[in-house]
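Following up on my earlier thread - several people asked me to post the actual chain instead of describing it. Fair enough. Here it is, all 203 residues.
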Amino acid sequence: MAAHLPAVPVPAGLAERAASLLEPHLIETRDAAGELTLLVAREGVAEVLARLRDAPDLALEQLVDISGVDWPDRPDRFEVNYHLLSLRHNFRLRVKLTTDEVTPVPSVVGLFPVAGWYEREVFDMFGVLFEGNPDLRRILTDYGFEGHPFRKDFPLSGHVELRYSEVEQRIVREPVLLRQDFRNFDFLSPWEGMLPGDEKASP
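Reply from S.P.:
Thanks for posting it. Predicted structure:
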């Protein structure tokens, strides 16, 4: 079992420093469980990340991940979270924004090249659009996949299933049909009659 690493405390005064550095794009700061989250305006995310990266006292030069969250009941149903790391000062910071199903988020590939694949993953799983990403296509699901599987309204069974057809000698794609067919139980099976009271429970 892997040992749990203790959280690195947020540097004192970081929230105030971020507030002064990120105006007018900063909407709110949240400090919970020793982690600082900055809620920023969608349109200003690229400038926000550039300022956090280039400020010598912060040096948040590594984009660790971009993740999404779906809140279907909100007008801006998606949250996009940018997880930043400062190796120089040994602390982490989360930048968050909100968007809807049609409004694109500015891509940050120009700041962090690794964001290309992270943005593709959020697009694939949630359907969030990233304006300026040079290669915004699916990365985890199959060609022709319908929908975005991390949305909370996505059916657990999916929309389409793949199977190999012996007749056509190829992979076929079909809509998912959930049927409860009549089951023919084999009463001669050794797996039947295992419960007390069953006619096959005793010889």
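The two ends are 48 Å apart (CA to CA). That should answer part of your original question.
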